[in-house]
Amino acid sequence: MLGKDPSKSRRLTVAHDEIIGITVDGCSYEARLGETVLTALRMANGHVHSFEFYPEKRAGFCLMSACQDCWLWHEDGRRLRACTTRAEDGMTLVTLLPEHC
Amino acid sequence: MSTTAVIIGAGPAGMAAAEMLVHAGLHPTVLDEGGQPGGQIFRKPQAQLQRPLEKLYGFDAARARRVNATFASLRSKIDYRPGIQVWAVGNEILHLIDDSGSSVQAWTHLIVAPGAMDRIAPVRGWTAVGLYSLGGAQIALKAEAAVIGRRVIFAGSGPLLYLVAYQYAEAGVDVAAVLETGHPFAQIARLPALLSGGRLFARGLYYMAALRKRGIPILTGVRLQEVIRDSDDRVTALSFRHRGMEQVESCDAVALGHGLRSETQLADLLDIEFSFDAVQRQWLPKTDQDGRSTASNIYLAGDGLSIRGSEIAEASGRLAASALLHDIGLPAPSKVERDRRTMRSAARFREALERTFAYPHEEVAALPDDVVVCRCEGLSAGAIRQTVERCGEADINRVKAFCRVGMGRCQGRLCGAAAAEIVAAASGTTIESVGRMRGQAPIKPIPLAELVRSRP
Amino acid sequence: MSAMFDIAIIGGGLAGCSTALHARLKGASVILFERGRCGGQASGVNYGGVRQQGRHPAELSLSRRSRTIWGSLQQLIGTDCEFAATGHLKLARTDVDMEDLIAHQALLGEHGIHADILDARDLTRRFPYLSGRYAGGSYCGEDGQANPRLVAPAFAKAARALGVVIRENCKIAVAEQAENGFVIRPADGSPAISARRLINTAGAWGAEVAAMFGDVVKETVMAPNMCVTEPIPPLIGPNLGICGGSIYIRQAAHGSVIFGAGLGVADAQALRARPLAEVTLEAAAAAVEMVPHLRNVLLLRSWTGIEGRMPDGLPVLGASPTVEGLFHAFGFSGHGFQLGPAVGAVLAELSLDGDTPTSISGLAMDRFAPFAVPAP
């Protein structure tokens, strides 16, 4: 079961949690097997990407691959849409590519 | 000539169509973006996040079971291809993309049932972290077992507002308030038409009563003002006007939506004719009563054709399939007349619903200049108005060309409705004359690397 | 009695709108007819490249003059239309390509256009995002790019502000010779217009208009298949092209990367054009091959438009060989955008002064066929 985790009250109880580990922007977080990357990020660092045209964090909107506001990157540069990608153990993700800084 | 029947969408409409085609002896291909069938309404969690069906679907649990059972029985009789997206169309072929790369699918007869997404009326600050569409909030609950916040305000209009608020309350979430922008209870004249919705209408009342019973305030005639956020862009409160008074309610999440809007990009690419639906205030594909489009051998069904709800979606899926069968010379299934009657009687209810929970187009047209409308490009209502005024444009595609509204990743899905209202008001023309943003391939963004990777 | 204008123009693309402005600046009374909206066809949907490099010798004087106008758009029409001299880099795959570039560099020099020849090491040093497969390239620093959607409408707006009459959504039913010039009857039944001079800048429909006067040339249509990505941080500086290849890539100031290769399908009569998915796929592959970083960038949109093409790939520009007072400029074969501003200046001179200082003899209509001059 997930430990004392401030996000726990947003995750609903299910029969059997299986915990996996992901890394986002270099920080480690726990996630739940079966959830999407978007859910994992909402519970973890709280956002998915930074808006291009002025400083603003984005964390998705529609959860059904319509709004396209939840694209981010694997550390190796591959693009992924958070709401349609399942979180996997060991995923290393970045919400900002190095050249964006 | 042999028939290659392809169905796009494995939601209620697509599955109902598949079932009918299978019973007639066809072996349709069913393409779906999702990993599992059921569309949005019957969206299932992954096995690891499974919760009891009653908790997930409430009144619809029995239907959910039936849909699952139907799919299970169809599974071996259809070519079911989940996780695949139609990104472009060619001459009687569809261009597809999935994890293995790009491929094509030929068709002789096509049933298009891509469903709908939330219809958005922007509010100042709506790009904040923690604000989701009503549909998104529902998916977070149902499919992800991870709600959008600890203290949630539900805002907007329409049956979904009360349903999702109710589902959240049932799941133990602190529902701070339900803020309805319309005046549903003032619609006495519409009562008979609303009552004709029978069971659906009763459910709506049930949700409202259940919310009140829990002491959750339901305010109507609300004017939403601003989503307030902290320095990390996270939602902390929502300000609004109600009965002439400004109020601020604290929350860490907002679920926002004003009904649904059909996904019509694919129909556009297929060169289907559209007509303007004044009640839904959207351009929708033109079809006959059974879903035959103006393009040869292409049929439409479900919420992707017109917003009528999931029960009607099944009937419309069957009708599209029967039209297809008729057109290839197979006998018409016996239930066609019954489904047609269902569609006609539902139409009255649907129109009453649409008028009761109307899109707040006047408020949207009058959004303050600084409110962001196009969240992909960061364009405000003022930027759109300026384009209309400076460039003398009153056509949405021309406005798009000049100020970039609708040129971002969402391809106009989120901003299109609001942008059209603003253009119409700023140019003094009708919403119909403003036109619609045309669909362009790819229907959804695709990384170039995936596009160039071919299936083995 | 219908109004008599000095100049009537058929076709409100960039060439027509520029003509309208330049003629008005010379004091002429001008009316322009456009069946849709100004800049609504090829002028508005093209790649947006603004380059002199790579052009056929017959176009270079015109192109040089146009570059001067591009650089002064702010003064001329009050907006720069996002024109930026980001440079044009034409890549060479082989040593033979390099020789072609060197020869072209000399030709450019004759027209006062400067280009630098770069070798493979220069490319790696200056443009590290390019895949390492090129022998070298030619870089023309004063070339660049602009936003095609903005330009023709901006010229139209400036022309209107100076008193040019622009009739949009106005199809022509009849255009014919008349006493003292020409008469044009709009299809909407509005009063006929008379003009001393008639200018045909009807783009992909230019040959159709020319044929009304017996100037018969063969014009086909082409539809450049264009693609655009999501915005990314600044990566690609110059407008990129390649010898003998069809891919071209540029990054707009906004951040999105526009690229194109190959052709979609166009129907000039139905006024419809659409990109082809298989062509988009090939263009995507070519783009990634040239700039590997684009692998992980999202394709957002593809589109095309209807452009006129002449058999030799060069536009028709100049006086009608048979009808006095009639002037043609059409068939820009996919590379008319940069030329547009100067085409307007030249047509204004030809029609009002009888001559132009810019060399355009290689673009004359009579290069296609012997044109019979009507017996006196």
Model description:
The complex is a heterotrimer of chains A (about 100), B (about 450) and C (about 375). With about 100 residues, chain A is mainly beta. Chain A has one helix at about 35-45, and strands at about 20-25, 25-30, 50, 55-60, 70-75, 80, 90-95. The relative contact order of chain A is 0.22. The model of chain A has no long low-confidence stretch (mean pLDDT about 90). Chain B folds into 3 domains: about 5-115 and about 260-355, FAD/NAD(P)-binding domain (3-Layer(bba) Sandwich); about 120-260, 3-Layer(bba) Sandwich (FAD/NAD(P)-binding domain); about 360-435, BFD-like [2Fe-2S]-binding domain (Arc Repressor Mutant, subunit A, Orthogonal Bundle), CATH 1.10.10.1100. In chain B, the strands form 7 sheets. In chain B, strands 3-2-1-7-20 form a 5-stranded parallel β-sheet, covered by helices on one side. In chain B, strands 9-16-10-11-12 form a 5-stranded parallel β-sheet. The longest helix of chain C is centred in the first third of the chain and has 16 residues, at about 95-110. Chain C folds into 2 domains: about 5-45 and about 150-220 and about 310-365, FAD/NAD(P)-binding domain; about 85-145 and about 220-310, D-Amino Acid Oxidase, subunit A, domain 2 (D-Amino Acid Oxidase, Chain A, domain 2). In chain C, about 60% of the residues are buried. Chain C contains 10 helices and 22 strands. The chains are: A mainly beta (about 100), B alpha/beta (about 450), C alpha+beta (about 375).
Describe how the helices and strands are arranged:
The complex is a heterotrimer of chains A (101), B (456) and C (376).
Chain A: E1 19-24, E2 27-32, H1 37-43, E3 49-50, E4 57-58, E5 71-74, E6 79-81, E7 92-94
Parallel strand pairs in A: 1-7
Antiparallel strand pairs in A: 1-2, 3-4, 5-6, 5-7
Chain B: E1 5-8, H1 12-23, E2 29-31, H2 53-57, H3 61-74, E3 79-81, E4 85-89, E5 93-98, E6 101-106, E7 109-112, E8 116-118, E9 131-133, H4 134-142, E10 151-157, H5 159-170, E11 174-180, H6 191-195, H7 199-213, E12 218-219, E13 223-229, E14 235-242, E15 245-250, E16 253-258, E17 260-262, H8 265-269, E18 274-277, E19 282-285, E20 298-300, H9 310-327, H10 336-356, H11 361-365, E21 372-374, E22 379-380, H12 381-391, H13 396-403, H14 416-427, H15 431-434, E23 446-447, H16 448-452
Chain C: E1 4-10, H1 14-25, E2 30-33, H2 42-45, E3 49-50, H3 57-71, H4 73-77, E4 88-92, H5 95-110, E5 116-119, H6 120-126, E6 136-140, E7 144-145, H7 148-161, E8 165-167, E9 172-178, E10 181-186, E11 193-200, H8 206-211, E12 220-222, E13 224-231, E14 239-242, E15 248-251, E16 256-263, E17 265-267, E18 272-274, H9 277-290, E19 298-303, E20 307-309, E21 316-319, E22 326-330, H10 340-353
Parallel strand pairs in C: 1-2, 1-11, 2-8, 4-14, 11-22
Antiparallel strand pairs in C: 3-7, 4-6, 5-6, 9-10, 10-11, 12-20, 13-16, 13-19, 15-16, 17-18, 21-22
Helix pairs in contact in C: 1-7, 1-10, 3-10
